[in-house]
Amino acid sequence: MKRMRLDINGIVQGVGFRPFIYNLAQRFSLTGWVKNVASGVVVEIEGGDSAVAAFVSALQTEVPPLAVVEKFVAVESLPKGDTAFQIKQSDIADERQVFISPDIATCADCQRELTNPSDRRFRYPFTNCTNCGPRYTIIRDVPYDRERTTMAEFGMCSSCRTEYLDPTNRRFHAQPNACPVCGPSYRLIDCHGQLLASNPLETTRRLISEGAIVAVKGIGGYHLACNAFDNQAVVELRRRKIREDKPFAVMGGSCSAISRHCLVSAAEEKVLTGTIRPIVLLSKAPGYALAEAVAPDNLYLGVMLPYAPVHFLLLGSDDVWVMTSGNTSDEPIAYSDEDAVARLSLIADYFLVHNREIYCWADDSVVRVFNEKQFFLRRGRGVAPTPLHLELQGPAVLACGGELKNTFCLTRDNMAFISAHTGNLENAATFNAYQMMIEHYRRILDITPEVAACDLHPGYLSTQYAHDLGLPIIGVQHHHAHIATVLAEHDIVDEAVIGVAFDGTGYGIDGNIWGGEFLLADCCDFTRLGHASYIKLPGGAKAIKEPWRQAAWFLYSLYGRDFINKNIPLNLYLPFGWELALEAAEKGINAPLSSGIGRLFDIAAALLGICCTHINYEGQAAVELEMLSAKAVGALLPYEITDGGMLQLDFRPTFAAMVEAMEIGVRRASLAAAFHVTLATATVDMVYRLSKLTGVKKVALSGGVFQNMSLLCRVVGALTKDFDVFFSSRVPPNDGGLALGQAVVAMKRSG
Ligand code: ZN
Ligand code: ZN
Ligand code: FE
After folding, report:
1. What is the pTM for the complete model shown?
2. Are 308 and 223 in contact (CB under 8 A)?
3. Is 528 helix (H, G, I), strand (E, B) or coil?
4. How far is the C-alpha of 229 from the C-alpha of 292, rounded, in Å?
5. How far is the CA of 41 from the centre of ligand 3 (A)?
6. Distances (CA, A) of 364 to 103, 222, 290
7. How far does residue 125's CA lie from ligand 2's centre (Å)?
8. pLDDT tens digits, residue range 285-341?
């Protein structure tokens, strides 16, 4: 006879782990108990020596699909003579510490029930079990049980209750358990609130095939859906949503529907069909035949597969629908019913709604696959609020994040909880939502921050919010935070690296706008070793929205007014009164200095006639330049590195060479490619020089510019021979990753 206690850590709660243990114990005729505790799950088992050994080995090889055992410790103790095996109630204090699971895509078992005419959940759009279904978006408070979720309004029928109470059932303690008898339901209304049809899902399908735009309430909020093959419908959606060019994401009814239009590698298919089911950025395939307006002038298409039962029921296997977040540009996604009808009634023809409240919204997560691994570009549904484990301890920190693509981060001990994507805080509705979400996270994670961390930019609303909290404040330089994010993810907590932080705009400590930064950085502090040369932004923020200003200023500083006689595409797009903008810049009126790499992309694009007059979304010039560059191979153009105590990387020779090449008729695509080659080569050149200077052999790459695959592949490819190269995968390289970096710097500095 033997008794053993097992302490199991990892993702072992809300994933069917206790019933799994219960069933194992039954199989080997063991007695004892299992319960959830703060750190995971504790099991005590008692029985014959060989049965106990068999249990321990099965425990490691048969874990449920969503569970991840990170660590387990087994200790032998004296037998107690238990007579049965039971699932013990957890202590309330422990439950409050429990990890809250993200929402999980419908599992294979539930998918089978949806399509089985003899199952009692046949075609029921709220089917879920312990292995799948909504979690984070329905939780009002902790501990996590039905009473504190938005399922509280629905009393379980006797069949559902029987499943819920049966430890051998897949729905044992599945809090959102429901069926057609007792659970929520869908209905279809028109934009005047008039109820339509008794079969809402079939009618929605028909309306979409006829060209309608339908707002579909899902897991984390509303989507706007239309047929992705119907250019007229997609153009109309763009017009109503006031979204001119920014690509729409689509949902395909099956992997094969997607692979007709996009290249899907085995690794990409794995991510598409996994438990998160994010939007995956895929390269368009030669046979691409979706409507032109879905993702104009873009190499990539954001694609996802059905993840909620309603999607499986709506989309046929050959269908591809635009599924874009239900909002007007820049506002947060609509998730409450009144709000959706109020805000979306000018966009959607119909509303497919349900009566289960979404308590906390979550945009779809966005990833791309690189080197067979998934890289997050946006963290939302399916990942929030899963914590990252840090290799450092410190006080509880609330890191308030940046301004665009904001997320915030709360820490407890060695765990960092990064929020779902909140959006652009310049928008008042988003800023309100941000503050609400911070309160919600503090409550459900039971964290009382002791320190606040924020950007140094005094104008960011997140910075002002941090200062109003009345906590000790730690300000973290924007690009240092970008690099610290990478260090945190890769557990480099006591070592300095060469940090390459490329983005559009970040507040610099010399009063200029930074964004092409080479830092010697660790988790605590940084030294600026080099940067892209400063260039003037004629008209300040206007120069970013209207790239011709930057390009014309560059040409003017090089050739004087004569540049207007050059035979280059830019000159066709100069607006009336362009001289005034340049004269003002010459006098230094509203012409801040920027080292942002994003601005170099703007100039290169505008010189080639791309996005000259204005951009319609952040990063558009760079996206379209990358698209053009894929059509050619590029030669290396000249650049200059000067050393005046700090290395400066000057791309004026690059642009001058581009102008000369255009004058002799070199193709624009070749020059777009050449710009990428030159930027990558110059970056690598800088890293080698700085490594020689410092002896450092580790390099961290971060910032929104590294979302450019052409640049990332070239830089990583060239550096891996002599360096250990790190970049983030679980956190976005763009400003959506800032909060994590801010948090670790604050923990380190207050430790
Ligand atoms: Zn399931
Ligand atoms: Zn029921
Ligand atoms: Fe940034």
Report:
1. 0.93
2. no
3. strand
4. 9
5. 39
6. 11, 11, 21
7. 13
8. 999 999 999 999 899 999 999 999 999 999 999 999 999 999 877 788 898 888 898
Are 360 and 139 contacting, i.e. CB atoms less than 8 angstroms apart? yes
User: How is 119-139 classified by DSSP, letter by letter?
Assistant: STTTT-TT--BTTBB--GGGB
Rounded to whole angstroms, the Cα distance separating 465 from 436 reads: 12
The answer to whether the CB of 705 falls within 8 A of the CB of 598 is: yes
| Percentage with pLDDT > 70 across the chain | 99
Residue 98 pLDDT > 90: no
* Residue 173 binned pLDDT confidence (cut-offs 50, 70, 90): confident
Collect residues with CB below 5 Å from ion ligand 3.
Answer: 503, 506, 735
The model's pLDDT over 707-726, given as tens digits with 9 standing for 90+, comes to 999 999 999 999 999 999 99
For the chain, give me the number of helices (H) and strands (E)? 23, 31
Q: How far is the CA of 178 from the centre of ligand 1 (A)?
A: 12
Which residue, 397, 460, 474, 472, is CA-closest to 431?
A: 460
Q: Is the pLDDT of residue 430 over 90?
A: yes
Span from the CA of 181 to the centroid of ligand 2 (angstroms): 5
**Does the pLDDT of residue 96 top 70, yes or no?**
no
Going from the N-terminus, what domains does the chain have, and what CATH number goes with each?
Answer: 2-95 (3.30.70.100), 108-165 (no CATH), 186-367 (3.90.870.40), 535-727 (3.30.420.40)
307 C-alpha vs ligand 2 centroid, how far in Å?
22
One-letter amino acid for residue 57 of the chain: S
517 Cβ contact list (under 8 Å, min separation 6): 479, 499, 500, 501, 502, 506, 528, 530, 531, 595
DSSP letters spanning 156-185: PPHHHHHHHH-TTSTTTT-TT---TTTS--
Q: How far is the CA of 121 from the centre of ligand 2 (A)?
A: 9
